[in-house]
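ok, trying the design again with the full structure, not the truncated one.
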């Protein structure tokens, strides 16, 4: 049985979404925060888990999807990747 951590901190310095209008930004961000907090409630990461960059993949939305639906979809993708095991995306960090 793993001990529950007292606090999990998720920091998203930059979220890149293509194909959305700037005016949708705040609604998408609010939904993302809310949905990701709910999805990670009770989640226990591996000890010392940390990642500088996470590629959460893509998902399909209906045309003209409202910002709340976009935020839920992004949160779902992030949660799915975290649940499968934290694996950084892109070039290996450190090294040469």
């Amino acid at each position: 049985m793993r001990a529950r951590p007292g606090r999990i901190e998720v920091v998203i310095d930059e979220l890149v979404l293509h194909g959305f209008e700037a005016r949708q930004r705040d609604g998408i961000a609010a939904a993302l925060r809310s949905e990701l907090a709910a999805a990670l409630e009770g989640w226990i990461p591996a000890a010392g888990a940390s990642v500088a960059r996470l590629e959460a993949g893509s998902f399909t939305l209906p045309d003209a999807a409202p910002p709340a639906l976009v935020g839920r979809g992004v949160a779902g993708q992030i949660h799915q990747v975290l649940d499968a095991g934290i694996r950084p995306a892109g070039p290996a960090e450190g090294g040469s």
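Keeping the full-length input from now on. The radius of gyration is 15 Å.
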